[in-house]
Amino acid sequence: MFLTSLLDRHAILGSVSANSKRQGLQMVADVAARQLGLDSVEVHQALLEREKLGSTGVGLGVAVPHAALKGLDRMHGVFVRLETPVDYDSIDDMPVDLIFALLAPENAGTEHLRALAKVSRVLRQKDLREQLRKTDKPDALYALLTGIADSNAA
Asked: Is 10 a catalytic residue?
């Protein structure tokens, strides 16, 4: 699976100001609403509900929030780079500034799990995280995310 199949270049925000995890997830919901024709409130609520089960902060300043939503026919990604890291209750207690959200159809099953694993694997790459933090241009972020992912596809 390539990140190009998950991430549209218009589903990226390169420099977002947020004061909390909740605000960061709202940014994700706003992008999803605009790009996918979803209801921002429903997306935000679904992401918050998932967070109640346990933080999606996977460490190293990265979060991979995810939710299953009505109205989707395939997996979609949204990437947000925060200007300043926010507390996210991550597994390593580090604040988060890189958010790659996955939005799945209600019946995604194993496709959802494979996408989570792929995104987590890609964002564990230290060089990639450093490069993502150095730019706020959506096109550059898209190139970094899809270029690294495609060359290391599993």
From this structure: no
* Tokens read off for 62: 């990265």
H helix intervals, the chain: 21-36, 40-52, 110-123, 126-134, 138-151
Of 15, 99, 12, nearest in space to 57 by CA: 99
Domain ranges, ordered by start, for the chain: 3-151
Domain 3-151: CATH superfamily is Mannitol-specific EII; Chain A (3.40.930.10)
Q: How many C-beta neighbours within 10 Å does residue 33 have?
A: 16
| Digit-coded pLDDT (tens) for 124-151 | 999 999 999 999 999 999 999 998 444 4
pLDDT at residue 151 in the model: 43
Among 44, 66, 76, 112, the active-site one is 66
Whether residue 118 contacts residue 1, with contact meaning beta carbons closer than 8 Å, is answered with yes
User: Which residue, among 69, 95, 73, 70, has the nearest Cα to 82 in the 3D structure?
Assistant: 95
Comparing C-alpha atoms, which of 100, 94, 95, 142 is closest to residue 121?
100
3-state class (DSSP) for residue 154: coil
